[in-house]
């Protein structure tokens, strides 16, 4: 029996997708039938509850070259998956129960597909990473349901992933829809009777309203509800920070260098109407930094860390010039750190301390094909590695990868699948990837070839460092051209 990789991804419907043998699946490209492989392997796709064209998958995909079974879990989004009025009728976390029930299905039935239910690795990116993090912490998830986890750019420790006041947000969504705000039972009935279109549009309006005022942590219908009407029987009875329970599994945590691009872009979309910023002085600069902190739900400790980053990475000359475009790299780092990186580092450190030798950490910094993750962002950032960019190398399409990119994709696939099979991420001709043994390290910097680094804190200002290196390079080129021009002029004259 083969090990199993379970991927948690975004969807507006609930279904499972299985990847099996290409010579079986290719004969039935649109048939939603469960087919058992002759031997456990995988490459293209056959589905359980829905179907996709298996011919669209790349032959470099995460399972095409490995003896594993890939299962893709998709769950309800937004209000359909996360809305909570704090009642037993709408308690919240429906999406997490989608994921949990899918994992139980895998445990019961995966042997029929050549998979080993005792060797399950769950992994997800972004919101999928939040879901995997939730599976680690929820007491509703039974022991032994999975053996390993990979969390890419996601964690419950982000300040906006756990709902601050889900009922208040749900009631605002109900008001936007036009529900009579009479009794809790009446509001629940109205929300349940609302169309999907109305729920989605109301939540989007609610998000705009909240983000333009208090920020991410107050957005409902997109976050995990803690406690609520179900009390100790809820999916997440207490915040993970308050829990002393650590599920005994092997884990990879990681993120990308310019995570802040997508979050800073969100700030532009919802708080600034995508208008470029004009600073008149360094006072405007400091006020803007404070506003960004608030939008991403920072606390006093985070404020102190951000202040240190500001003073250590932004020069006084830059602040005095108050040129927003010049300081964008700093804000990209600040937004990424507040919204994602600090939380991921915190969760990794907690598990590494509780489970010595079982936790690995990475930073993905390989510049590949252009990313479409931040369309319309008014400030270009060359050589960025943004949110989700690593997915192009785990599920690559051959028509967008050159030879060097393909080599990186093979490294990534080898690391991920070897971890799923053995619990240790390894790849041929790649430096050993040691587990986290102290706060912030060691970790693997995923470039080509990968590099072992000691202290992850250096990655928290990656964008600033890249920008300075780029500017230095431009200045060196200009200086060289000036010298060359002077030499040519002297020779001519």
Automatic annotation (TrEMBL):
Molecular function GO labels: carboxylic ester hydrolase activity
Similarity remark: Belongs to the type-B carboxylesterase/lipase family.
InterPro entries, alphabetized: AB_hydrolase_fold (IPR029058), CarbesteraseB (IPR002018), Carboxylesterase_B_AS (IPR019826)
One Pfam family here: COesterase
Native source species: Anopheles coluzzii
Domain Carboxylesterase type B: 60-452
Enzyme Commission number(s) from the entry: 3.1.1.-
Record's keyword terms, sorted: Disulfide bond, Glycoprotein, Hydrolase, Serine esterase
PANTHER family for the chain: CARBOXYLIC ESTER HYDROLASE (PTHR43142)
SUPFAM superfamilies: alpha/beta-Hydrolases
Taxonomy of the source species: Eukaryota, Metazoa, Ecdysozoa, Arthropoda, Hexapoda
Protein's name in the database: Carboxylic ester hydrolase
